[in-house]
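User: Okay, second chain of the day. Same drill as before: sequence in, structure tokens out.
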Amino acid sequence: MINKRLLIKNLLAYNDENSFYDKKVQLNLNSKEGKAKFLKHVCALSNSNPDNNSYIVIGIEDETNKIIGVDFFDDSKIQNLVNAYLANPPKIQYENVAFPRLSRHKVVGLVTINPIPSITSLIKGTWKYKKNTIFIRRGSNSIPTEHVILKNTNKAVVSAIEKNAVNNIELTLNSVFNFIDTYKKELSPTYKVFKDQFIVCWAGIKKEVDGEIYYSRVDIELINEQVRLFYSDLDDVQIQYNEQSFIITEFIQLGIQQDFTYYPLEKTIIHFKDNGKHDIASELLFEPPQFDPIVLKHIYNSNNALLEKLKKALPLTKNDRNDLEQLPTSYLICSLNGFTNAKEKLSEIKPLLRKLENKSPYIKVKETERILRKIKYN
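Assistant: Same drill. Structure tokens below.
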């Protein structure tokens, strides 16, 4: 079983990017350019590694190789993006890897690209890259090419890197103790062992709503691999488990005029096997709630007026500051109810909210983007 934190450290030891490994400060799939560059690198790494895994590490300063981390990214539909744009798409996996020195809400992203014995190319154009373009890695660059000869050049070195990242008892125990020590009593940290091999730790604030148990400020980690399975400062989750599986059901609280309801968003099931392996399957459960269009029109216009105030750096009233707390969620509801420009308004307001002393509205914008991304790729 590979310890992903140790694997990232071994990859970073190479310092320079190469034909089986790339590093990025961040991943931006919200823009056409960011999406296209990500697809380019996946394509190039796949073509350059037909017999071994290749990797993209996210949250690393390019010049210094310093680990700075990124926000938790739980886009389980990222494979759908690859499938939609690439011919012979490789199987990829995005994982959030916890590092003790990073703040609680930061992780290092790890994209694992599994090998396939076929040439990968673009099946449709994206940004400035044309349809049918083939990419390969040359040193640290992903470049277009007309001809590819699939050959085994990295298998031995990647195998050695992965072998040196195998987990052990000391790493596992230290990680369990560190998790429990980090969250203390207020978040009730606990753990469960599955199949005598896997350890899942989780922490969160437990509360009861209408007879149902929910957890907020939740952090869930698969300790053996140092992978964070779930993290949210805002959304609530229900946790269930049996001897073979750990089940996370995520809920979002939506409503207008102080009338809020819990809506199930996504269910994730981690199924542990006797052979030391596990599967993770996710199912989107969300059915967008529909609200009175007249009321939403009024809310949408009020949000736009508040956005203009922020753009012009005008002073905010007490009511304005209160409305800012609900603005991201209001734009989300509008988007789900047919207001086509609501997503653009979210993009406009995000950098403005980031400058404010109160970071709660900014965090809510990022959570809102995550929800919209899940719905889009599903």
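The two ends are 30 Å apart (CA to CA).

User: Thanks, on to the next one.
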